[in-house]
Amino acid sequence: MPEDLYDIIIVGAGPAGSTAAAYAAQAGASVLLIEKKKDVGVPLQCGGFLPHLDTLQELVPNAQLPYMLEEIPAECIHTTSSVQRFIAPNGYSKEFEVDADAIDRRRFDKYLAKEAGRCGVDMMVGTNVLEVNGTSVNVDGVFGAHTIGAKVLIGADGPNSIVGRAKGLVRDLDPMGTGTAFEYEISGVDIDREAVEMYFGKDYVPGGYAWIISQGGDTANIGVGIREVLFRNGLSARDYLERFMYKHPIASPKLAGASIVSVVSGLVPVGGAPKVTATKDTLVAGDAAGHIIATNGGGISTAMVGGKIAGQTAAEFLDGKCALQDYDERWRREMGLEIKTAVYVRKLMDNLMRSDSMMSTAIRMIAPEQMKALQCGQLPDAVRKGLIKMNFGIK
């Protein structure tokens, strides 16, 4: 049974919410973490690609990464890769070195939620937030119906955050700003276990990319990241993944004989952050706040950074040390430039990917270290000049 009043209520026990809960509780706040799933991390909604700590720090150099990322438990890691490979529409490939883990998100999300519990956080799983009234929430689920109050509310409940909508902390409407990730976990395949492969081509993933990520042994995660506004001829995200899996001239032979053991899907907010992410009594973090690198759809580490800052700021606010609205400036100082730049690069890539020949030329032209920078949402000056020479229409 929950208390009638908490210092902080956090909605959503993903990486952002659990991290926020742990940091707030460590600072002495009473915290309730509410999760609609009956089993944290299930169903899965993410491929789970997570670069190692040094690469994550390069990605957001001004951020102080949460301690949970310093040493991820071995049981949360499917396998480790050392190469990221781009395959152009014409089949040409180029790769760069990057050490990364394929995370078992089911176990990783539970690890983070358990860490929050160890810090003294109360949890209600299998519980839906039906309504937000000020900083009170009406909930219902496996533990019954309750109205629970708080001094601060944190929304870490995904791209369609009920908390964000209730408080006007939402992004401007942009059909290209939300992607759909549709994935299969498969077994019985023989793929490059050291490489994460990303495939481009408008016949298979218009305005997006497909991927193959080894999960160790003969298992893998394959998927497509695509915007619904670009779907053609009534096709769905599943149709595009099926086309990639069975008809792509390079990928399909690698995936022959695969058995699909799990279907994964979710929304990916690639349009950047809302203009405002904090009010006098409410914060949003993680996907709810657009804490994602738009060029690659990666958001685990940035969500956790946002969650850490949210938890710390809420606790400091309760102690009278800051205004809650300071959160907006704090997280933007640590990773706002990288998130904003990634959106800009993503928009450039959206135009580039409308032409297979242009995309193939760009992959051939760009050096591996520059490709790595683009993947991290950066735009090296040499790449910018090269795009201008291609009459790409940028200044």
UniProtKB/TrEMBL annotation:
SUPFAM superfamilies per the UniProt record, alphabetical: FAD/NAD(P)-binding domain (SSF51905)
Biological-process GO terms, alphabetical: phospholipid biosynthetic process
GO molecular function annotations of the record: FAD binding; oxidoreductase activity, acting on the CH-CH group of donors, NAD or NADP as acceptor
UniProt cross-references to InterPro entries, sorted A to Z: FAD-bd, FAD/NAD-bd_sf, Geranylgeranyl_Rdtase_fam, Geranylgeranyl_reductase, GGR_cat
Record key words, sorted: FAD, Flavoprotein, Lipid biosynthesis, Lipid metabolism, Oxidoreductase, Phospholipid biosynthesis, Phospholipid metabolism
Stretches assigned to the Digeranylgeranylglycerophospholipid reductase catalytic domain: 180-268
Domain FAD-binding: 7-169
Keyword Flavoprotein: yes
Domain of life: Archaea
NCBIfam families given in the database record: GG-red-SF (TIGR02032)
Protein's name according to its UniProt entry: Geranylgeranyl reductase family protein
Species of provenance: Methanococcoides alaskense
